[in-house]
């Protein structure tokens, strides 16, 4: 039922039309029933929930950051990579969306089954290769005349980027990405059936003045064993493994033996640089703290307690009075 609210005049007009026969009440009911029916395309079966899509988005946002760092170091120029979209589509639709000739890196992610495709816009790939070879990073497209040297340079560049992909997945699964093929024609790769659901992650890439896209295609068969781990429940759990009591005891023992500096501040004073330069043995500097006021005890550089001075066994000492609340409370 529509959430639109009718005015009184509209209600009167509607009732009048039904009464005079200008509008059929049964026809209105049929139209309302028809609106409730949603068309479902079995060729585009949704196999990932919104929750799982959000988890994949987080993983690849991390991958984009790692990739930005990697390419910035390799190319020594301005690089910016961000996640543009994460969608689930039939594999056939992904293949149709690619140019006739493009850069395709196909790699496995053991121990998971199947392969993943990293499709790189030729302009981006050539801009990266131009920087590696000492150029300014200009983007151009001559993929139909790709030489063996150019193929090797591009292949090595993207193969090393797979270390970032392994690191991005560490919180979910331990994978070992390994480059398998380097292709330029999408028609030569057929990883799954045309109607198989795949996840397509689109990354926006900026290399100097050249911009383009990197698309990752992950078939459902690759993610199937770890789909339960792509839920919010898994992400929100603070600890996925049992803690070894021996490790806890060892850590506690090391912390207890850690030495920290504890200092008692008698007071402070301000003097000029000239007065400081003129100080001589026997000179007296007056503190700004009254003698009867408690001392400030610092743990490291953080004010922690107040105390009163005294002696124990002919040695100077302080007696803790209470917690100090007048300074950096984050140190409590």
From TrEMBL:
<dbReference type="GO" id="GO:0005886">
    <property type="term" value="C:plasma membrane"/>
</dbReference>
<feature type="domain" description="Flagellar motor switch protein FliN-like C-terminal">
    <location>
        <begin position="253"/>
        <end position="322"/>
    </location>
</feature>
<keyword id="KW-1003">Cell membrane</keyword>
<protein>
    <recommendedName>
        <fullName>Flagellar motor switch protein FliM</fullName>
    </recommendedName>
</protein>
<keyword id="KW-0969">Cilium</keyword>
<dbReference type="GO" id="GO:0050918">
    <property type="term" value="P:positive chemotaxis"/>
</dbReference>
<comment type="similarity">
    <text>Belongs to the FliM family.</text>
</comment>
<dbReference type="GO" id="GO:0009425">
    <property type="term" value="C:bacterial-type flagellum basal body"/>
</dbReference>
<dbReference type="GO" id="GO:0003774">
    <property type="term" value="F:cytoskeletal motor activity"/>
</dbReference>
<keyword id="KW-0282">Flagellum</keyword>
<keyword id="KW-0975">Bacterial flagellum</keyword>
<dbReference type="GO" id="GO:0071978">
    <property type="term" value="P:bacterial-type flagellum-dependent swarming motility"/>
</dbReference>
<dbReference type="InterPro" id="IPR036429">
    <property type="entry name" value="SpoA-like_sf"/>
</dbReference>
<dbReference type="InterPro" id="IPR001689">
    <property type="entry name" value="Flag_FliM"/>
</dbReference>
<keyword id="KW-0966">Cell projection</keyword>
<dbReference type="Pfam" id="PF01052">
    <property type="entry name" value="FliMN_C"/>
</dbReference>
<keyword id="KW-0283">Flagellar rotation</keyword>
<keyword id="KW-0145">Chemotaxis</keyword>
<dbReference type="Pfam" id="PF02154">
    <property type="entry name" value="FliM"/>
</dbReference>
<dbReference type="InterPro" id="IPR001543">
    <property type="entry name" value="FliN-like_C"/>
</dbReference>
<keyword id="KW-0472">Membrane</keyword>
<dbReference type="InterPro" id="IPR028976">
    <property type="entry name" value="CheC-like_sf"/>
</dbReference>
